[in-house]
Amino acid sequence: WFSAGGTTGSDINLQTNTTTGTGGGGNANTIMISESLTALTAGDVISKIGMDAQSTNNQPYGGVKLVLYTSNASGNPETLIGYTANLNPSGTGWFESTLVGGDHTITTAEAGNVWIGFWAASGIAYFTQSLSNGIRQQNITYSSGDAPPTSFSQGSSHNSEFKARLTYKDGTLATWTMEPTFTDDFSKDKN
């Protein structure tokens, strides 16, 4: 047998919603997250987290980390998967960053829909669409030097959803192995 390298495929963006919607705003010293439209599978490799922000007078937004949490069996945010370094975004449009510690491979326990959002020191303006309990909020003082909490503890929810995304590669395309099979009856050889 022999092995051969495979392909990693193209980057895929997984979003919380795809509409432009109207404006909304996050609260200072909170983690605010919305659920992804589709699920990740074990083996998918996450490289970046992003968010679609609106321009306001209080930009650049000083002190923002983009975060990613698992969804539990009840569909609620639960365990931290990854986050970005401290960002200071400005302007309208997508801002994104790589994960602290590098790419993250989704485990079987983490597979499924995920919750994507931000932990911010100040309010952030973003594009929304209506969705019952679409944003989950945890009140926690922002710290540029600390990681977000490993467990999400919901304090409140909002009837809208903001636009966030993560960039990943499909784990089923990460590698492949080729093992040729052949049969030969050596007993028919004369020499």
Describe this structure in words.
With 191 residues, the chain is mostly beta strands. It has no helices and 12 strands. Strands 2, 3, 5, 6, 9, 10 and 11 form a 7-stranded antiparallel β-sheet that branches. Strands 1, 4, 7, 8 and 12 form a 5-stranded antiparallel β-sheet that branches. It is globular and about 45 Å long.
Looking at this protein, list some descriptive labels.
191 residues, mainly beta, seven-stranded antiparallel β-sheet, 0% helix, disordered N terminus
Helix content: under 10%
Question: Sheet with the most strands?
Answer: 7 strands, antiparallel
- Mean residue pLDDT: 80
Could you give the count of β-strands? 12
Distance between the termini: 26 Å
Radius of gyration: 21 Å
- Class from helix and strand fractions: mainly beta
Looking at the structure, what is the overall shape?
Answer: globular
DSSP strand (E) fraction?
35-45%
> How do the SSEs run, as a string of H and E?
EEEEEEEEEEEE
| Low-confidence regions | 1-8, 174-184
Number of helices: 0
